[in-house]
Predict the 3D structure of the following.
Amino acid sequence: MFTLPVYGEGEVLDVLVEDWDLIGSNDFIGMLAIDIDELRDKKRSRKWYTLRDEDGTEYEKLGSVELVLRWQYNPELDYFPDEDDSGREPNQLEMVLVQARDLPAKDSGQKLIGKAGPPSSDPVATITCGPLDSNRWKSEVRKKTLTPSWSSRLHLPCTEATDMVHIAFDDWNRTGGNTPIGSAEVDVASLYQKGVLRGWFPLRSPEDRDSTLVEGEISLGEVAERLWGYSRQHRMRPDELFEKFDADGNAMLDVYEVSLLLAELGYTYEQSEHIFAKVDVSGDGEVDYDEWLEHMRSCGEVELVMRWVYDPDLDVLDFEDDGFAGEPPNEIRVGLLQASGMPIMDKNMFGGGGSSDPVVTFTCAKIDAKSTVKMKVSRAGRVNVAVVSPPSTTPPPPPHHLTSPRTNPPPPTPDPHPGVERVVHSRPRGPRRRAWGGHARH
């Protein structure tokens, strides 16, 4: 039995039957396509299917296959069944990198020894959120596939609605640098209602990674993303998106229809002509559904599940009211969360790049508190929390043997913030001392 994750409607189950050959490529026997929407009743279906030729025509001489199908619910694939009912401002992006499809092949598949394989890629994904490379996660490499699957969970600190989630795919190479495949971006503001967003996101080509909204290139998939966004559970089906582009409803797109939509994003008519020409492969001045769909998936798509929620573990220190309204302040609380954009201080001896070993020191009233060292990181991430306290002006109590035998020592003052390590200063007028205080909760 085989299982494939399928969530939204409009998907097709493709079945390819081949004759396997030890040397050379496999030989085509037949194929068929099954509309998943026919199984929406979640009932079991068992039937024979006649294979089709490469043109999609049924041909009895190709044979047939018997399949048992059922489109059902699997709780293990419902990644976020619970809701965030904390009522607090979100501070963490919860995300699942599910899979990708239709990725372009970056490796030829040729081998010096043995059977040559089809062109393929070794995709690896890198996901960042917020300022450049401040929060970074990298997937495992999937070898020799254009349809990689991960179902990997990740959590990235995120507190700003203006942040962008950037997903970049590269073809992993054993020697030399990786080869870019494509990338996508998601606006964190679209997750503000804390609903679960699940959908297929089109990847734009590596040449467009650094493009700007008005001056650079843009795909029609990005136009749809920025104008209409996504539904709460899944993206609009490809045919639904095509209908939104097709203003006159004649099942064909022309440059005028596309220019009307691009004008809403600040593009001129001349820029629209240039973008339309990249979609109109046939060059006849019109784009049918097949051409449009090929353009939408030219660099592939990635399936993501994400939501923006509140995580109390990221509140590393309590910065609420201290509960002592009538007392003068005597302690400064410092929460050191993360850093980004720091220069590389330790350069590699061979090749480019390098890393740094960041450490942070806080000083107040000649008292030092130092964070732990983040070893060998090329991009600073979350670092430890430190608390710096000025020297106390209250004289210490006399030793116990000097107190009256009939008088008990005063009880110690309760600590309003238990569990926080503090910098201790025993000689207010002595030389500067250094303490390694603080703690971190990851």
User: Anything to note?
Assistant: The longest strand covers residues 92-101. Residues 88-108+118-203+299-312 form a domain with the Immunoglobulin-like fold (CATH 2.60.40.150).
